[in-house]
Amino acid sequence: MKRIILMVLRLLWKVPYYFYLIWKCGKDESITLDEAYARVKKVTKAANHAGRVKIEAYGLENIPRENGFIFFPNHQGLFDVLVFLDSCPVPFSFVIKKEASNVILLKQVVAALRAIPIDREDIRQSMQVINQVTQEVKKGRNFLIFAEGTRSKMGNRLLPFKGGTFKSAVKAKCPIVPCALIDSFKPFDENSIRPVTVKLIYLSPLYYEEYAGMKTTEIGAEVKRRIEEAIAMAESQAQL
């Protein structure tokens, strides 16, 4: 909470402008997703800088050159999406739990980036979201989905990945891009405003040919394994 307050205070004179900028993206249908993404990215970078958060991104070359793929990162906290918005060079939308989609400002970002709220308690609505994401990915949109379903609350340790979250990728036959978030829980979950560095590693994608014969639970386990391996390697290098 302290860091959010710091962000707001340091950008106080720009907050109304930034809010309007993002709000308009969700209201004006003439604004393309690319344009909306560029605006949200600009605001995100300013907020992260004001909050004394440094983003280090690795493996950008692993992001597929052709659109129509899904990022699958570990989920550490409320700051996770801001890490992607700060570092990712290509526009993406995301799936967000329904209860979080109504939070002020986040609600406007959801509208601006055409994100899709999901009600995890409603099986029918969840299936509709899976089908909607499938169709959008086939059309060339990129998505971000948290396969753990909820933040781990265990620092850099992961919860099991839910197989169902990979159904859209399987149906769309699209590239799956594992992503390792490191220390993304610190900016908002720690009661501190000290400078902090968050790392994001874009790992090599799994293409449909690689996972076509696997069950979604097996895909989830493999993506989780790759992320855990990347986190362990990064933490080991940091100790040298």
Question: Can you offer a commentary on this structure?
Answer:
The chain has 240 residues and is α/β, with parallel strands linked by helices. It has helices at residues 2-10, 15-27, 33-50, 80-87, 106-112, 123-138, 167-172, 186-189, 208-211, 216-238, and strands at 53-58, 70-73, 93-97, 116-118, 143-144, 176-182, 196-202. Strands 1-7-6-2-5-3-4 form a seven-stranded mixed beta sheet, with helices on both faces. The model has no long low-confidence stretch (mean pLDDT 93).
Share of β-strand residues: 5-15%
**Strands side by side in the biggest sheet:** 1-7-6-2-5-3-4
| SSE string | HHHEEHEHEHEHEHEHH
Mean pLDDT: 93
Task: Calculate Rg over CA atoms.
Answer: 17 Å
Oligomer: single chain
Query: Total helix count?
Result: 10
Largest sheet: 7 strands, mixed
How far apart the termini lie comes to 32 Å
* Secondary-structure class: alpha/beta
Total beta strands: 7
User: What gross morphology would you assign?
Assistant: globular
What is the helix fraction of residues, given as a range? 40-55%
| Low-pLDDT segments | none
Map the helices and strands.
Elements lengths: L1 H9 L4 H13 L5 H18 L2 E6 L11 E4 L6 H8 L5 E5 L8 H7 L3 E3 L4 H16 L4 E2 L22 H6 L3 E7 L3 H4 L6 E7 L5 H4 L4 H23 L2
Parallel strand pairs: 1-7, 2-5, 2-6, 3-4, 3-5
Antiparallel strand pairs: 6-7
Helix pairs in contact: 1-3, 2-3, 2-5
GO molecular function, one term: 1-acylglycerol-3-phosphate O-acyltransferase activity
Family: Belongs to the 1-acyl-sn-glycerol-3-phosphate acyltransferase family.
Pfam family, one: Acyltransferase
